[in-house]
Amino acid sequence: MAFTSIKCSLVLFLSSLFIHATLGELICEELPNHVCAFSVSSSGKRCLLETMPAKDGSIEKQCRTSEVVVEKMAEYIETEQCVKACGVDRDAVGISSDAFLEPHFLDKLCTPECYKKCPNLVELYFNLAAGEGVFLPYLCEKQRSEPHRAMREFSSSGAAASGPASEEIEAIEFYDAAMAPGPASEEQSGNLYEAFA
């Protein structure tokens, strides 16, 4: 089982290098479906799977460029380790906050394995939660202490608040600083997790 996981990771890594070397730039529409979701194009826009009608009348999935811009990351294919650690599904169509409603999603998203090593996915779900009026660090805190309450608060879209607005702004600024361009150092990754812990 472990050998298969390592083999799959190696194939994904090599295919991403091949795609980048061949194309010169990462274009969502040219990515294979199995690495499309959670990738970021050279232009800094998120890639997503969309369903499209095929010529034979069936429905097929295609990789497309979304309008969602990632400010501090480009040309990135999410690793298989992060997909597993954060509990996301590469076959998911579109970009949506629906994952928050899945019972065990927050359990995985709020783990150190996800926050410390997967800034692309943390940034995506941080923004999706904010779009629903929910502060992700607060949601993770509630998930650890009162999992059922965290789910109810997210379901009510906006019932969660972590205190004064200034505290939220400081946490967001800290998050932005931790997501600065360039490879994340262990210290930055650790500080990012502490901000959510």
Automatic annotation (TrEMBL):
Top-level division of the source organism's lineage: Eukaryota
Key word Signal present: yes
InterPro entries xref list: PAR1
Key words of the record: Signal
Keyword Lipid biosynthesis (UniProt): no
Signal peptide (residue range): 1-24
This protein's name: PAR1 protein
Biological source species: Rubus argutus (Southern blackberry)
